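Cross-check.
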Amino acid sequence: MEAAAPDLPRPFYDEWSRSRAPAAQALWHWHGALTEPIVPSGASVDSYFDEERGRAEAGAPLRLMPEDTWTAAYEACETHDLSHEWLGAQVEAARLYCGTMRFDQADEMETFVRLWALPHARLLAELAELTNSVQVGWVDELARGFFYLARLVSLPADLAKDRLFVPLEELRQYDVSVDQLRSGPATEAVQRLLWTQSVRVRDALQRGRSLVNDLSVRQRYTLRWYWHGALALIDELDRRDFDLWSELIDLSPVRRAEVYLLALFGQS
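Predicted model, tokenized:
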């Protein structure tokens, strides 16, 4: 039986003015479609994705996702003067979703994140008119944090699709095998490995936290909600000794209420 992925929220999917919400949702649908790219049978993956990236950057019709998805994303870019370059970067990264996905070194995974998560976040930031270099730096860090968290809590489900977002060098460092991560249990070595991944998440979120001060009141609350919620998920993982296999990671109603109060009245 394939591992079920937790139902994770998509930051800044709904929380927009009426004029900008369709664009944000179109960008999210583009991003999601690329996790299951359409590749013609017998096509050379590298040549195909090279061509598709060029098409995306030029705003030309694509083959690797449904027409209504790329049409809506292009319309969002044209309406709000967003860069097609960031769409193309995601296409470049999406080639790795074709087949087994592994990263031997941490810097290889970071290269993927720079092409995958950061361009998506930068498009949303441009939509929110957060464009100066300091703001973009904070956006990048938050994108890293949310991406790494999503992949950490979805680790068994990702591995069911033969995708691993933990550097193999770190598995070797802690003497953990890929098979151990497929089905558990959370041995002491596995716990140490996954704790290291949680530190990567916390550090990125902390580096991006200052963005909240540059947001509108509505967006400030939204970011606080996701930021505190992300930290609460990490705390829950820690409480469970990083057991990702016994049951899906989720927050209790009480913990969700605490996150709500922190987002409303606390400080990020």
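The chain has a mean pLDDT of 93. The chain has two domains: 16-37+45-98, 100-268. Passed to J.P. for a second look.
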